[in-house]
Amino acid sequence: MAEKLYTIPVNEAFDKDCECPVCEMFRKLESEALDFTLGPSYMEEDVRAMTDKVGFCKDHAAKMYARGNRLGMALMYQTHTYGVIEAMQKMKPEGKGGLFKKADNSKLTGYIKEMSKSCFICDKINDVFDRYIVTIMHLIKTDDDFRAKYKKSKGFCMEHYGLLIEAASRELSGRDQEEFLSYTSNIFIENMKRVKEDLDWFINKFDYRYKDEPWKNGKDALPRMVSKLNSISVEE
To answer: What's the rounded Cα separation, in Å, for the pair 129 and 121?
Structure first.
């Protein structure tokens, strides 16, 4: 089929030699979202209105800080903090009012829990990422070339393997669903075994009996296994 705009990032991710193409799609979206948030957009009223309202999760706060735009981040945090202080002043915690009374601070604690999970960058990523997963299912049904490329991939991380299985139950049916679940499971298990064998060899290389043996594919086995199990990229 002719490649449409929304299929481009999906195909590009599956063209890469990586342990999880879905991770590649997510990381690219995340990088773009961080660039957008810390770029000139933080001075735009509609963007600031959203960052003031929802703030940032701890993971993306750390990644924003690491990018070095201290002034941009400070400005966003300044106006966001105004709203947090105002909201929490109205929900001051209360102690017990009597021997048999229990304080009800559920409104305050609920707000704190909600704000700890709320994140402008997560929202920006997830809106597009969800459509990428739907696009994968669409291509699986309609594009023979993509389906062949999918089957030749090096598998997926555990989190995104589960995500693909869930998506198949919603987006595929009948024979399409049955075949997809079968070959996706095989791709995942066989590639987990492949990286596990590389990890075994990496460990063997610390045994004096193997010190003169070649590294084979074991040298970067640990970061690749971390990628498979934890869906993160770590430095070698």
So the answer is: 12
